[in-house]
């Protein structure tokens, strides 16, 4: 099967430039863009100087200071085209090989945009993520998702999460179908109630664990990933369970959200990562007055001298207090751990205690 990597492996830097030029909106393709000067990002769409196209390795190379949920993100021209237009690798591959309605280029297999075609706009991206959400099913006892969560958070007993669903999804990488996996689909919701994206966790089909996904050339691929973001993600979270008595918790990861609930009984929403945690906005109209912040107790970064997870959690606490909310900061007892680790230890000690009493 033809792969994107096979098609582009002998391309010159000029051909990568041509690929980018044919697919990115003309508004971004300024003289400053081609000179490698900072400008607005064609992927996240925000900022006036966060994105740089430098083609430094001759593969359409770029970097954005905010594209990784508020952190830096870099990639090649293929990722730039796919992420900025919403095209899948398969759709781009079909363009390059002439299998789609968009004609292939006359020179060096660089695609020429068909007149009238445009990158996916916000409404098209929204339709795409809504389609994924609609195709997934509610969680049920004993399915692959609940088994995985119970393995990561032993003894889990929590309200059924309406923001999580289960699907069977193909995993594509650069035009190659790696496999089909049970997939947890998490609805990421903004403070105003709109869905901004869906976060997907690919699971092992045989055991309750994240899938180990390896491409044909040996690259280990991430089992967790977002689909296209129809809207900026700042302020949002995965609403696992409703707030209780005006109190709500926030954490980084999905599993940490459930672990925090088991440890403290506080309904908790995952924000997916520490940067988005720091940007969380309390939704209006839910009567929330107290926010519990469950921080990852990361090791100290030797370059900055701070614990990244703690620093972003403290940043959130400071802002929320200034906005009039009561905040309660929680961190695990041992550095280098999160609340999933802490809950597992607590659970195992409780089991050992019960066994000792029974004996």
From TrEMBL:
SUPFAM superfamilies tied to this protein? Zinc beta-ribbon
Pfam name, any one: DUF7146
InterPro entries found in the cross-reference section: DNA_primase_Znf_CHC2, DUF7146, Phage_T7_Gp4_N
The DNA primase/helicase Gp4 N-terminal Bacteriophage T7-like domain, residue ranges: 36-78
Domain of life of the native organism: Bacteria
Q: What is this protein called?
A: DNA primase/helicase Gp4 N-terminal Bacteriophage T7-like domain-containing protein
């Amino acid at each position: 099967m033809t792969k994107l990597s096979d098609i582009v492996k002998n391309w010159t830097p000029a051909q990568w430039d041509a690929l980018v030029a044919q697919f990115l909106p003309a508004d971004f393709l300024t003289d400053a863009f081609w000179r490698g000067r900072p400008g607005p990002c064609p992927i996240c769409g925000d900022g006036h100087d966060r994105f740089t196209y430098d083609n430094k390795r001759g593969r359409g190379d770029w970097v954005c200071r905010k594209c990784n949920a508020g952190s830096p993100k870099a990639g090649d021209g293929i990722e730039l085209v796919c992420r900025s237009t919403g095209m899948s690798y398969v759709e781009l591959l079909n363009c390059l090989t002439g299998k789609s309605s968009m004609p292939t280029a006359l020179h060096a297999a660089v695609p020429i945009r068909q007149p009238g075609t445009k990158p996916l706009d916000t409404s098209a991206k929204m339709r795409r993520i809504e389609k994924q959400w609609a195709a997934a099913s509610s969680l049920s006892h004993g399915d692959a998702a609940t088994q995985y969560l119970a393995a990561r958070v032993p003894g889990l007993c929590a309200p059924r999460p309406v923001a999580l669903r289960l699907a069977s999804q193909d995993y594509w990488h650069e035009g190659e179908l790696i496999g089909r996996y049970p997939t947890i689909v998490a609805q990421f919701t903004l403070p105003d109630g709109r869905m901004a994206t869906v976060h997907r966790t690919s699971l092992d089909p045989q055991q309750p664990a994240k899938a180990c996904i390896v491409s044909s050339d040996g690259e280990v691929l991430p089992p967790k990933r977002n689909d296209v973001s129809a809207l900026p993600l700042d302020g949002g979270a995965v609403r696992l369970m409703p707030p209780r008595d005006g109190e709500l918790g926030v954490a980084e990861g999905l599993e940490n959200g459930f672990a925090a609930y088991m440890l403290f009984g506080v309904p908790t929403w995952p924000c997916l990562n520490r940067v988005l945690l720091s940007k969380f906005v309390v939704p209006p109209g839910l009567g929330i007055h107290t926010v519990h912040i469950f921080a990852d107790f990361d090791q100290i970064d030797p370059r900055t001298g701070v614990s990244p997870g703690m620093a972003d959690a403290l940043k959130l606490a400071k802002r929320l207090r200034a906005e009039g909310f009561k905040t309660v900061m929680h961190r695990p007892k041992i550095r280098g751990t999160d609340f999933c680790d802490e809950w597992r230890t607590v659970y195992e000690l409780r089991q050992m205690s019960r066994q000792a009493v029974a004996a």
